[in-house]
Structure formats: C-alpha cells, structure tokens
Amino acid sequence: MLHRTLHPLGLAVLGLSVALTAACDREDPGLPTAVTAVDELAASAETSDADVVLMSDGATVVGQSHLTRNQNGIRANVRTSGLTPGDVVTLWLVAFQDPDGCIDACDSPPEDLGPGRAALGLAGAQIVPSSGKVTIAGKFDVGDEAALVQFGSVDVFDTPFGSEVHLVIRAHGPVIPELLAEQTGSFNGGCPPNACVSIQVGIHQP
After folding, report:
1. Can you give the CATH number for the domain in which 71 is found?
2. Are 183 and 131 found together in one domain?
3. DSSP summary character for residue 173
4. pLDDT digits (tens, 9 = 90+) for 158-170
5. pLDDT for res 66
6. I need a labelling partner for 30 at 20 to 30 A (CA). Which of 15, 90, 107, 120 fits?
7. Is the peptide bond before 129 cis (omega within 30 degrees of 0)?
8. Does one domain contain both 147 and 179?
C-alpha cells in the first residue's frame, strides 16, 4: 500500500484553509450588512403620485408626477405636455413644511412663499422639443440652502415627511444663448427680456 506523507508546508496551508472556512461560516451579529441598511432605507420611504395641472385653472391635466420621500430629502419625476417648443422650462420643488400655517391654501410660487415655512429648490431644466413634452427629474436634499441665495424669505429644507410638496413647471420663454445658464439655473433667469411664469403644478399632500 502506498503511503503519502504531507510536507509541513502542506499541513500549514490545509490548516489555514480550515480556519478561513470556519471564519466565513460565522456571522458577526454586531455588524449590519449592506443589504440590511438598504432594506431599512427603502422601508422608511414614502411615495405618491399626482396629476400635473395647469395653474391657470387648477383642473386641466397635462401630465403626471411621482414623489419619493425619505429622511435624506425628496426625489421627484415629472412627465408633462402642452409646453411651447423652443422654450426653456425649469422644475422647482416647493415644500410647505408647515402647511397648516398657509392662509386658506398653500400657493405655488411666486404668489406666496411666506406662510407654511416654505422651502424651495431647483430640480432641473430642459429646452422643450417639438413635441411639447418633457420629463424632468430631480431632488431636494435636507439642509439644502442653495435657494436662500435667490429667496431670502424661504426656509432651509428640513421636513421631507409632513410637507405639502408642489412640483412647479416654470417657463422662461425662448432660448437666449447668452442667458441660457441663467434661464436653466434661476427662478427668473432670462426675464426680462422674456416673461417668466409658473404654468403647471403637481401637488403632493403630506
């Protein structure tokens, strides 16, 4: 009968392999897994859908909007139509963090941003194609103070849950090449010489 003797180095390697296998089979209950963290974040999120309507009558449906809230802020997606081809449009996220403080109702900008601890953030911008339809997605993070540069009266955003959120489409008129950065990055960019107006809104209740 053939007898095979393991070299000492081979025994050491075998021992290391057994030790590593045993270590992998043990779970450390004190270390949460990445999957658990993701699951907890998803469980804490709230989502809602709302029609996008013309602000001129508050009734005519021109698109759809989707909103997700979690402890980090809000995420929005707006699909809408009926826009003027060649115009620049921006999407603004307006969070009325104390909606009970609004008088009668919370008004989308620029009508009234004082009551209701309003916080406002720019979510995105597009040049309207020939179809007159756009999809714009964006976010508003807790603690974002960027809007305070343009609106000294608005609040810092700190209440993703419990806020009444208005997703506002604002038109900035035809593209002005030398002013395009302002048209796509500020509330009244390009106006004058163009006329800026908030034209559509999707309202998400708390």
Report:
1. 2.60.40
2. yes
3. E
4. 999 999 999 999 9
5. 98
6. 15
7. no
8. yes
